[in-house]
Amino acid sequence: RNLFEEAMKLDILVKDKKGGPYMVPNTAFDVGMLDLTHPKTADWFKQILQEMVDDGVRGWMADFGEGLPVDACLYSGEDPITAHNRYPEIWAKLNREFVDEWKSSCLGKQKEDPQEALVFYMRAGFRGSPKWASLFWEGDQMVSWQANDGIKSAVVGLLSSGLSGYAFNHSDIGGYCSVSLPFFKYQRSEELLLRWMELNAFTTIFRTHEGNKPSCNSQFYSNQRTLSHFSRFAKIYKAWKFYRIQLVKEASEKGLPVCRHLFLHYPEDEYVHRLTYEQFLVGTEILVVPVLDKGKEVVKVYFPEGERCAWKHIWTGKLHSKQGSESWVEAPIGYPAIFVKDGSKIGETFLENLREYNIL
User: How far apart are CA 308 and CA 244, in angstroms?
Assistant: First the structure.
């Protein structure tokens, strides 16, 4: 199927001022964008999704959505500048409508089995997007340790988006954007990949990406070490599934994100207001202090004021009970600094699952 030609014949592409399809540059080629305000667009696109699902697909990236030109012409006749921010919301709504319609048509086990559910995740969004999208990811970080567009920025984006209503978010494990020029190179190192696995094992979704230049990047399948590390942290991700389900339910009811900046729960502690990417909470019961610098095997952990319980280091069992204190904690590759509240049922269940999976 030539989807571009089909969309052209149906006249459902965004137009330029001359009345032709508005061709938008996208990496190495130009694309036509669906006019989501056209009454024929939704049914045509849902039929494509239906064929995809009939072939066994249960999840997809509903990518793009942010690129509506501000001088385009839409079927609705509305101002393209105003429509620019509405476009990703309509895009999310269209995908959600298909998911809901598909589920309502299912019967028996297929309808009730969570393994049969559909999920789509989005990069672009505006204020209303979380109402429709089932999941988000943070777009295309550099394969680097940088704060502005590398692994550190993935944590900043995770926490700031959570405060903005995007409760379910994550990044590509290892980042996405590689550059391979004679005097300018960004290539994913094995160490960066391993540390990003450790970080993302404590986000809503644990998902790899080869990046825009796979051959330049270390991949989870590159060697035995990367495969073993991926397996280990997939199990760690699975070990808190019971809590993740609870947090997703809480998010749907209250809007609280799965991954949280500390000031949400320790607002009186002035120190936590100065934190950016250094550490974060998963719910209220897990404290994550990722290693985000090349060659580092120790991290500085801050234990906030206002907590009644001690924090237990999951690898050693050491308790940290002094509030408002900092401590240097060893965090070699494979053993990031993760803490649970001592005596909490959730923390103990998490540790029991880690033992069951032979992680502890």
Answer: 23
Tell me the C-alpha distance between 270 and 305, whole Å. 9
Look up 11 and say whether it is catalytic: no
- Contact (Cβ atoms closer than 8 angstroms) between residue 41 and residue 34: yes
Q: Does the pLDDT at position 111 exceed 80? A: no
> With helix as H, strand as E and coil as C, how does 184-221 read?
EEECCCHHHHHHHHHHHCCCCCCCECCCCCHHHCCCCC
- Check: pTM over 0.90? Answer yes or no: yes
Given 16, 66, 278, 305, which residue is catalytic?
66
- Indicate the DSSP class of residue 277: S
* Residue in 94, 158, 167 with CA at minimum distance from that of residue 130: 167
**Catalytic residue list contains 71:** no
Q: Mind listing the pLDDT tens digit for each residue in 269-321?
A: 999 999 999 999 999 999 999 999 999 999 999 999 999 899 999 999 999 99
Question: What are the respective helix, strand and coil percentages of the chain, to the nearest 5?
Answer: 40, 20, 45
Active site residue 63: yes
**Helix (H, G, I), strand (E, B), or coil: what is residue 13?**
strand
Residue 261: phi and psi, rounded to 5, are -70, 145
pLDDT surpasses 90 at 87: yes
Please report the sign of the dihedral spanned by the C-alpha atoms of residue 237, residue 242, residue 243, residue 245.
Answer: positive
Q: How many residues does the chain have?
A: 360
Cβ neighbours, 10 Å, residue 305: 15
The percent of residues above 90 in pLDDT, for the chain, comes to 94
Local structure of 237: helix, strand or coil: helix
3-state secondary structure 278-312: CCEEECCCEEEECCCCCCCCEEEEEECCCCCCCEE
Query: Among residues 140, 210, 250, 348, which one is catalytic?
Result: 140
pLDDT at 311: 98
- Whether 226 and 220 have beta carbons less than 8 Å apart is answered as yes
- 173 close to 207: Cβ distance less than 8 angstroms: yes
Does 73 have pLDDT greater than 90?
A: yes
